[in-house]
Amino acid sequence: MLDDDDVPPIDWEALANTYVVANGKGGVGKTTLASNFAGLVAADAAASDGDAGRVLLIDVNGQGNVGRDLGYRGTSIDDEGAAFYEALRTGKPLEPVSGVRPGLDVVIGGAHIGAAPDMLQATYRMRQHRQVLALAVCLAPIARRYDLVVIDSAPENPPLQQIALSSARWMIAPTRSDRASINDGLGSISRQFQLVRKAVNPHLRLLGVVLFGSGSASKQIHRRARAWVAEELGDDAYLFDTIVRYSEAVGQDARHHGRLVHELEEAVASNPKFWDLRSGRAGTDTTVVSATSVSVAEDLANLAREILTRAAEEDAV
Ligand SMILES: Nc1ncnc2c1ncn2[C@@H]1O[C@H](COP(=O)(O)OP(=O)(O)OP(=O)(O)O)[C@@H](O)[C@H]1O
Ligand SMILES: [Mg+2]
Asked: Which of 5, 21, 248, 249 could form a disulfide with 290 if both were Cys (CB 3.0 to 4.6 A apart)?
């Protein structure tokens, strides 16, 4: 698919801390993982030292679901990807929205980004390398401002997936634990991964696969999933130990309130007491947040630690 056209010079060193969350299948936890990983690391850094540890989250997605997880969807900062689209078109450096959370800047996605591949094709015509490197071109000049860059990618959309994969050093692939998800989802992203590595970004590495929204911590389920992942991606594909447990309530609460899971965990403490509900003191519009968010927040924090530790180990090899 890619012709050998002129490739713009990319500062790959600047992209060494860039992680893309990707899978060819929809609804496997990509956006939840990307938003919470970025948000957790930013919160941790902001809590320990005012200015240190800035994080950038980029929404390469026509649905703009990062905005639901962070609660800015439909607010004044939500341009549905218009500024991002313009940067991709012109090749100028990205201008993220700063301080969406302490230490966390965001490049906002949405409907405009869904139209970006067609626009890039019209703008750069036969220059297919230039099209697929559109994000790398405008991310590299600002990437050194950040200690961590996380990219959320689109499901079932090869052109947008290629744009996201072409800008990253590390790929993390969340998947459900069933065989169809592993075969279809990981199978198709694996093809995009190989293509991008060969054509434009030889630095891209698969950091690991995450079992997301699994109903059980059963060793047998984990073992079987591991075997299927190896079938699809090869024996050396890594499966993270942390499984993000299944909780429909937490998924719903997070997007309903526009809060990350560790922020929900903090809200659990403000749930009304049973007796306040009975006596009417709690009022009628009291929000109750699922207490399971405490466990899911712990899974996501363990996973963030595992991801960063593994990247450091891989870098050291
Ligand atoms: N721990 C959890 N357990 C079960 N469901 C969850 C959990 N966390 C989030 N969800 C829900 O799972 C659904 C899919 O999650 P998410 O949007 O992160 O996946 P995705 O791969 O980004 O989807 P898409 O392919 O549509 O972009 C959402 O409805 C979300 O609210
Ligand atoms: Mg998503």
From this structure: 249
Structurally, how many domains does the chain consist of? 1
Q: 250: Cβ below 6 Å to ligand 1?
A: yes
Q: Which atom of ligand 1 is nearest to the CA of 254?
A: 31
Whether 176 is in a domain gets the answer yes
* Within-domain flag for 230: yes
Facing residues of 60 across strands?
153
CA distance 64 to 45: 25
pTM above 0.90, yes or no: yes
Instruction: Tell me the residue range of the domain where 309 lies.
Output: 12-247+297-316
Strands (E) located in the chain: 18-21, 55-60, 97-101, 104-107, 148-153, 170-175, 205-214, 244-245
pLDDT, tens only, 172-208: 999 998 888 898 899 999 999 999 999 999 999 999 9
Q: Which ligand is nearest to the CA of 26?
A: 1
Residue 310, domain CATH: 3.40.50.300
